[in-house]
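At this stage, I put together one protein's amino acid sequence and its backbone structure tokens, which the following lines show:
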Amino acid sequence: MTPKRKQKLYVILGLVALAAIAVGLTLYALRANINLFFSPVQIAAGEAPIERQIRAGGMVREGTVVRNPDSLDVEFTVTDYVDDLRVHYSGILPDLFREGQGVVVVGQLQHDGYLKADQVLARHDENYMPPEVAQALEDAGYKPEDFQQKAADVAKRLEAEEGAGAENGAGATSSSY
């Protein structure tokens, strides 16, 4: 092999090695930013990674929202009507967050089995359901009409409770929202 061919071969091998390193570093960086979606059934089955950023979703189970009166800490349960997932969140919840509605939470699953949420995403209106949540509920055997009707029933009940509280002059809100 001539010296000129050797030089070209080294240059090509060097470029291939640099390209491989660049692709490897890019994939490593992207791996940390991927938020895979898991339903409560998948999490209960152990399919979700522990202490890694994930998205989980379902319906907020009625009667499970507990607010700490001294801080912004909130605990609630997300369900797909097969399994439940406890969620701990510290921060201001979206205005559209309420029991019986679909939510997607972003956070890390802890060893104790609860999800420490960094972000809570609520539905847009009573007819909207995040696609991942709708698919998880359908996989659990529920039709979209089932959980849309349940959400409408819960919304009516909550409105009636809020109306009754205003009529009593109490004006106080319950800790379960």
User: Anything to note?
Assistant: The longest helix spans residues 3-33. The first strand starts at residue 36 and ends at 38.
